[in-house]
Amino acid sequence: MDTKLKNINDNVAVRTLAFIMCITLFAAVIIGSTAAIIGIEKAGRSFTLDEIFGTKNYLESSDLQEEFRRQSSNLLSLVAEYKSEDNIKAGKLLDEDEGDLYNAVGQLYYDGVYYCGEKRITANKVQVSYDAIQESGSFRPVMILNGVEYPIQNYNYNENYIDMDYEEAKNFAYEYVTYDLDIANSDLRKAFSEANKEQIAEIKNTIIKNQLRDFNALKDELSSQKGLVYFATDGANVHTNMKLAASEEDKLSAPELKEFETYPAYMVYKAGKLIKVPQSVNNTTSWIRDIDQTIEDSFFKQYNDSLTIYLAFNDDYIKAKQEVYQNTSDIIQLLPLIIGCAAGCLIIFLYLAVTTGRKDEKGERRLYTLDRIWTELQVAGIFAAAATGVWIAVASLQNWGYSKNMSSMEISVLVLMYAAIAAVGLWFILSCIRLLKARHFIKNTLIYKLWHLVIYRWLGKIWSAIKEIYKGSSLMKKIIIITLGVCLLSATVFLAPLIFLVIVVFAPKWVTKFEGIKEGLEEVKNGNLTYKIPVEGDGELDRLAKSINEISEASSIAVQNELKNQRMKTDLISNVSHDLKTPLTSMVTYIDLLKKEGLDSENAPEYLRILDEKTERLRHLTEDLFEAAKASSGAMPVHLEKVELLSLINQGLGEMDNRIQASGLDFIINAERDKYYVLADGQLLWRVVENLLGNVLKYALENSRVYIDVKEILTRNGETANMVTLEMKNISKNPLNIRADELMERFKRGDESRTTEGSGLGLAIAKDLVKLQRGWFEVFIDGDLFKAQVMLNTYDEV
Fold first, then answer.
1. How far apart (Å, rounded) are the C-alpha atoms in residues 243 and 163?
2. Which residue of 275, 334, 529, 783 is 20 to 30 Å from 350, comparing CA positions?
3. How much of the chain, in percent, has pLDDT values that exceed 70?
4. How far, in Å, are 251, 436, 481 from residue 375 at the CA level?
5. Which residues, 6+ apart, have CB-to-CB distance to 228 below 8 Å?
6. Coil/strand/helix, residue 779
7. Which H or E element spans position 410?
8. Is beta strand 776-782 parallel, antiparallel or unpaired with respect to 705-714?
9. Helix (H) or strand (E) holding 677
10. What are the start-end ranges of the E strands in 583-665?
């Protein structure tokens, strides 16, 4: 039984399934909890356990008490703050010492501008200066605002004011004006207001308009609340949604208390006393019980004996709220499911935590590749996953709060995001558990590894130094032995002068050589690769200098080769661009002619013929370029076999007979034997021969002779070298003002004007193909004489 259980726990499929189930259950718990919170919010319920599970009646709920507080606050603002529309228009709500007007004037002063919506109001600045005036035998600091002198009010706080001379009083005024003066100063505010009468009047109108908008919005909110009945008056203004009879003074009379007592929930404040049903003191939530007292205090602090407020919720309002309030059965049914998913998630997590990192057959803890991630990053990943999950939950709730809606697509995305976050977090948690079990939690930290690396490095250096002394080169041994010998000899009285003399004689020479090497290294470092360090002997320093000179020479050669390669690359790009552009330009030109003249034009056949030629040329060029790339990379398959070279040459001459006849060239073959068997790939060798013959037909002088020599190479002793050479010589019709090695580069032609039909790839392809067949290819130029030579191994019959 234990073996079967162990096999189940070690089964990768079982553990993977448990991992997926744990993630799924966790995501279900989060989504279910979010759905429950949204459901409670939609039902209008408070987020307390007593409210959700205990309170069934809306009249006994905290939500009703909160609604009383909210609506009473609205009525108090309406009747005590705004009072009436005429009161607002008269500017009675504007206060120059605080509030919106005070802040607006301050902003206009400090910023020099105030925005009323899109309109910009610019301030007239106050000219501020300072001085000191003599008064009653002493000097008094003053500030000058727009040319008017004002005493600095806080000068009385200066105990030494009576003894101040002119300069002291002026400095005091300077410091006050520079550092202490602001718009809170009544004189400055008065001067600023005088200078900006029109601007401040416009600001007042804007603030009044905003207050009127807020006043009407509050009235609309109260009027739109279905089932809400209210009456509020401060003795002069009345606000109500009830139909009441007017008194003799043409004012609406307050309703009778008996009328409001018929409502299931009501509140009456009159003559400084509050009557409210139901009372908040009976509520189950502690912080709700003080609402009645809070409402009464807010009314009483208006200190208006005429303040009267009636507020009630009728039967229809309470009935509608009661239906919504009791509609939480679906939410409550979710709770057992959420608790079950949470319990299952916890059980599976404990199973994974217990079974992960179990010992294998060798008794070692199993660790995965991702467990090698530094412990700090894994712990950070756990916290990051948790923080991300909380952020997504809060964001989704806020999004629902704004839109009051959540689509199925959004829910699906949330599920996937929670699952991904849970997977990352769970993996890192299990990884940390495995590290703890394997006792690698601390060892896997970056701090531990850096500390261990530093210690190991220094101890390793010491140990390496000891091994170098023991196994070092002859120079190392010489230095160690000489140093130890000098230390021992200089310790004696008689040999100390001799050691001193030896050091004085030889040390300057060694230092001079060392300085020479150092100077040479500086020259080489600065790019002077032609510099040579003087070498005067055969000592260790001389051999070192010689080696550095050889390195410099090799580096110089490498730099020259690199420059040459760069130039070759530039030429290659230029030539490729030219050879591709030439036929394409012709093709575009003739296609445009065909478009203009039409296919029925008498020139159309000629245009099509030229297009066919250019297309064929472009195809050949592309194939040559592709073949050159394959040949130079060595990616072409090579099948070496017995091939008869002379027959291949004759075959090529036969296939190109029409072109040969048209060129007037006379091909002369010189061969000592009838057959020459070589070790080669028949197809690749045919391509070489074809390229060489094509090169001759393109660039050889018309009506001249072409010599093809095939012979076997002999050594100096007259013995065969097991190689056959093919030489093809012709006279060029264009001057060959180019080196032979450059001619074998890709896209290089004998005619620099590039007016011939060739691609410039023939010789380069031939060279690479011969190289693939273990042969050797070279070209030679002597004036206008061009010679191509191919050397291949002979086929061994044995």
1. 75
2. 334
3. 74
4. 79, 10, 50
5. 71, 222, 241, 311, 312, 313, 317
6. strand
7. helix 408-437
8. unpaired
9. strand 677-680
10. 641-644
